[in-house]
């Protein structure tokens, strides 16, 4: 369960990350034209096409799905190995997310942090924060996992007949 995580990563992965995914979902489905237009910081954003609107809705749906999968996993498993494997998978996805955002923005916009809009901060700032938190947790920087139900081994009773 999530209670096995040290406090800081538990708050990040079970509260802040799901909230950011819900925010991404809402932005993508409530105003997909804005969502698409804001993906790359620029003075005059392009007008969203019907195709990009559909993609924004699909991406929003993926954000909501990721939120539900993450919450389901954190609140249903007591296996820390499963949680760690999930966080490694998300770390790999974080690298891809940042890499594809960098590719789309180009190096000049990517490294011009002062020119980032709110969407760039969400795509890059939030993702990098989550990635570094995952790395820190997986590296043990936050300390050991808390003892949970999965770490308590049942005692073996000896058979009195022997």
From TrEMBL:
The answer, when asked if Transmembrane helix is one of the entry's keywords, is yes
Which keywords does the record carry?
Answer: Membrane, Transmembrane, Transmembrane helix
Taxonomically, the superkingdom here is: Eukaryota
Task: State which residue ranges cross the membrane.
Answer: 12-35, 55-75, 87-106, 118-137
Q: Which InterPro entries does the record associate with it?
A: DUF7704
What residues does the DUF7704 domain cover? Answer: 2-144
Q: What is this protein called?
A: DUF7704 domain-containing protein
């Amino acid at each position: 369960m999530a209670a096995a995580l040290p406090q800081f990563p538990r708050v990040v992965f079970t509260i802040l990350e799901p909230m950011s995914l819900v925010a991404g979902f809402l932005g993508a489905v409530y105003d997909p034209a804005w969502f698409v237009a804001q993906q790359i910081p620029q003075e005059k954003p392009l007008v969203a096409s019907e195709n990009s609107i559909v993609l924004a809705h699909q991406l929003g749906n993926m954000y909501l799905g990721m939120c539900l999968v993450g919450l389901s996993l954190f609140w249903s498993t007591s296996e820390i190995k499963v949680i760690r494997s999930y966080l490694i998978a998300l770390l790999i996805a974080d690298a891809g997310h940042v890499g594809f955002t960098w590719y789309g923005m180009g190096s000049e916009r990517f490294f011009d942090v002062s020119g980032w809009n709110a969407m760039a901060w969400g795509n890059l700032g939030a993702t990098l924060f989550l990635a570094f938190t995952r790395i820190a947790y997986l590296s043990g920087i936050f300390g050991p996992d808390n003892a949970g139900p999965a770490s308590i081994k049942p005692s073996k009773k000896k058979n009195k007949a022997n």
